Amino acid sequence: MNETPEITIFAYSEDKFEEKRIKKLEEALDYKDYRVVWVNIDGIGYLEELKDTFKVHDVAVKAIKRTKSRARLAILKDHLFILLHQVYELKGGLKKERTAIFLKDNFVITMQERSGDVFNSIRESIRHNEGLFRGKDADYLLYALLDAIIGNYVPILENISSQMEILENKVLKDRDKETLREIHGIRRRILFVRRTIFPLLEVFRRLRLEGKEFFKEETQEYLEELYNHVMEILDIIESQRDMANGLVEIYYSTISMRTNEIIRILTVVSTIFIPLTFITGIYGMNFNTTASPYNMPELNWYYGYPVTLLAMLAIALGMLYYFKKKEWL
User: Fold this and answer.
1) What cellular component GO annotations does this protein have (predicted)?
2) Which superfamily does CATH assign the domain made up of 6-255 to?
3) pLDDT tens sequence across 238-270
4) What are the structural domain ranges in the chain?
5) Cα distance between the two ends of the chain
């Protein structure tokens, strides 16, 4: 969070534009004659000035001060307040940042925890008079800011999908604990994105139904697109969550198959040695052949030992052939 929040003004009409950094929030009022004035504050600050200069409600200020506030919408007497989160990819995970947006008359005020956001394409369009911004009012700018925040979720989800494709191949080849750890990491990211974006359904639903008075009729159509965009992203998230759960199931299935393969081989080996152990057990008994002609007379045969070994070898090979014929090997 910035120690000294920075304020940037984007003031524009169809035929003029001004971009300036100011030190006091009240200086923004000097630009009120422009068609749209976008006041961006990098850092959580100037809250008391915000109340004094723009007469924003205490409900909004208190929501901004709460560090763990969920996305919310406040439809007030003469202004709108929206609190939502921008999500960024960082090394090893995702990070979310609170973003507050006010709409009052021809002013749009954005406040975020730190510098850096997803609004650069909007700034470039305004600077170079590209797109519809210069010919639209503040309500269209608000829509564009919200759409940029929602649109930023798409590349994040695409990256998650790419990682899952790589993991699917690893699961089928490696089956090590590191792969399982990566799968659980993907699942945590998917749930993180879902928890962040899901509250926006209610925000945009209310914005469509209850906040219409702050939007011109031509802009109200875009609000429907915002709601549908969130629904599409949630559908993608649900599909990815199913895929991640499927990867876990594939991982444990391959482990189980590998274990079953090992057990099958060990069972075959053990089965082969059962008759061999039986034979060696019999000839390991200490009977005296001189006491009775029935006490293992073959112990005195000249070729008794090699014949027994050959018999054991024949039994082992015969069992291997039988198992192969039954496709147990």
Assistant:
1) plasma membrane
2) CorA soluble domain-like (3.30.460.20)
3) 999 999 999 888 888 888 887 888 888 888 888
4) 6-255, 283-325
5) 64
